[in-house]
Amino acid sequence: MSGAGFDYTPLLRKGLAAPAPRFGGFPRFNFIGGHNDPGLIPSEALAEAAAAVLRREGPNLAMYNLSHGPQGFVGLRDFVVKKLAGRGIACTRDDVLITSGSGQGIELVSHILIEPGDTVIVEEFSYGGAITRLRRVGATLVGAPLDDQGIKIDALGAILDDLARKGVRPKFIYTIPSIQNPTGSVLPLERRQALLALAKKHGVPIFEDECYTDLQFRADMPSALYGLDPSQVIHIGSFSKSLAPALRVGYLVAPWQILSRLIPCKTDGGTGALEQMVIAEYFGRQFEHHVKELSAALRAKLDTMVDALGAEFGTAVECWRPDGGIFLWLKLPDAVDVTKLVKPAADAGIAFNPGPEWACDGAAAKSYMRLCFALPSHDEIRAGVAELARVCYEQTGIPVRSANVKRAAP
What we know:
By secondary structure, the chain is α/β, with parallel strands linked by helices. The protein is 37% helix and 13% strand. The protein is built from eleven helices and 15 strands. Strands 2-10-9-8-7-3-4 form a seven-stranded mixed sheet, with helices on both faces. A four-stranded antiparallel sheet has the order 11-12-15-14, covered by helices on one side. The chain has a two-stranded parallel sheet with strand order 1-13. Strand 5 (146-147) and strand 6 form a beta hairpin. Helix 3 (102-113) packs parallel to helix 4. The model is unreliable at 402-410 (pLDDT under 50).
């Protein structure tokens, strides 16, 4: 319905985000968001799982939360417990809260812990959705430097010492230690232990986000921070990346002191019941096989994207090759402002995530971008990267086309 009508503008709350444009469809070369490979959605197996679990559990749909209480479907919580044992986490179903995606977990934790003006430490490059949510509730973000192995402990220690001298105790440290978003790094075990010791020294809890850990390209993933010290860590994860983004299901693991405060704030009437049941039914039998197959396919797509960037950009681009997940974080020369490439790239049918949206200090990330390699095919990756290089050259003169050389990823 369109046309002149009641004007709601004067009634809107102050500080809202800009209005959303109408959805006009996805671009030809879609390198944004957390999409996954359409060819690896196990549609038939999910249909069979849905039929089986509905025959068994269907009558419970008559009750909110399937009569299993506000923490979620027992079958899925039991699967989370089993899955997290592989991350070194010893917990029970009573320690698990099922959420409507990991984003809801971030919303809930922010809601109970943060008041306007509170300080939160976040990795200098981090999940844009977390940065947005934390700022929305009024948090002051302090960026902790990263290197190719994750958060730099000495730099974090200096930040905490400086805040302590000012009488500031951060509400928590938000970190993605396993397949960091967007850099794809994995924090080594010794750094994890040092991080926990440093946080304990300053009386600061850790908020651990492990949304991408199931999609790993290495076999030696260190234990989760929660597994090393559950007393001072809140842990979240998701099934969006390991199964399907459209199934909005995540989970949160925390001591009851925290869970008992989170549950009353989860006012959605319960995460979608059918999604919970189907995930529990399918992953209860196929989890290891599925994530192994998906991870192998994603790694092959990463190889294609790295090769394409080398061929098209030569030495004009620096890549952080991830240890898993679905994103490639890269840097163009300092003179390039990627925000000025967004519109011309969109006009050419390309969508990418500009670095400033994934950084505490947007200006410091103006030459960075994040590319998702999961959704497009191998041919689309090659063609899309070539088109991106063309747009970049037209707008900035970089890369110098004659200088393009094929190169290995750093």
